[in-house]
Amino acid sequence: MTPRRSAATLAGALILTASLGGCALNAETSPDSAAAQETPDYLTQFEELLPTLMEQADAGLQLEDLREESCLRPEIEEQQLETRWLGVASSPVADTAAANAALDRIGGWLDAEGWERQNEVSYPPEEGGDVRVLMYLKDDIGVTATYSQSERAWVEILLTSSCRENPKEHRMVRSELDPDYGLSSEYYRDSPS
Predict the structure, then answer these.
(1) Which DSSP letter does residue 60 get?
(2) Other C-beta atoms within 10 Å of 2: how many?
(3) Distances (CA, A) of 183 to 79, 90, 175, 189
(4) Is 127 exposed, middle or buried (0-12, 13-18, 19+ CB in 10 A)?
(5) CA distance 31 to 55
(6) 66: nearest Cα among 129, 158, 137, 145
(7) In the chain, which residues have pLDDT < 50?
(8) pLDDT for 32-50, tens place per residue?
């Protein structure tokens, strides 16, 4: 973990743990294929939402992840049995003013689009780093926009869906926008067989 992300990662981890209700700690699951088939099309939603938020931020954010990932503990062999969608974009910005302006634009757009603001948290440098976090929820998709300052100002957007159970034959999906799309992996269907 780089120093620039330590404060943001700490804040994000606390937020993520609370928002997921502990799904990342599941030791077992009993997949329900009917429930999995009724879930929303997160791929399309995330492919539309993350680039829009990146554009709204107007801060040169780069897409890092846009994929389905496991909610299960790493020792569980069949990681595809319970998954969620994850989208991440981030970038350094010029300074605190630019970072706060980016978060203001993101928050303004989410407010206008009917997203529910769950929380806004700010920590000054003397209280663990210069950090500001906006948290939004709509349906079962969470958006966390974070500004953190360690060596330099940094802005990150994190999208997450709720965890969902999948049938045993499920293979996780990466968006074609994900930088790792098509790379070899036993869990992703976009990987070469």
Answers:
(1) -
(2) 9
(3) 17, 21, 12, 10
(4) exposed
(5) 37
(6) 158
(7) 1-39
(8) 444 444 446 899 999 999 9
